[in-house]
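USER:
Before I trust my own judgement here, I would like a peer's view. Write it directly below this note and I will take it from there.

ASSISTANT:
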Amino acid sequence: MSKMAEIERRSEEASAHIRATIMNEFCEVMHKTGLSPIAVMRLAAQAVGSIYREVADVHACPDGCPCGWRPHEASDIEVLGAALAAACRQHRCNHDLRLMRVIGSA
């Protein structure tokens, strides 16, 4: 497997894991609080923003993290906003079983 294929595979696995985790928590929060879907989505977006801020603060220090990433707040926020907008517009036509929520048991 080429390095690019390996990176793509890991990215797809990470995306599926993050999406499933957020979907499970999203449904649980709606069920427990009775808040509307958009209210919970707003809270999730705020959580992502606060996670960005925390991670960016650690990486902004000269001796922060050895990974080498340095935050560029303006462009990072544009990238995050564009990713959110693209995902909101994207229609899922493929039914990937890894991304589906488990309902009940057999």
About this structure: DSSP finds three helices and no strands in the chain. The mean pLDDT is 89.
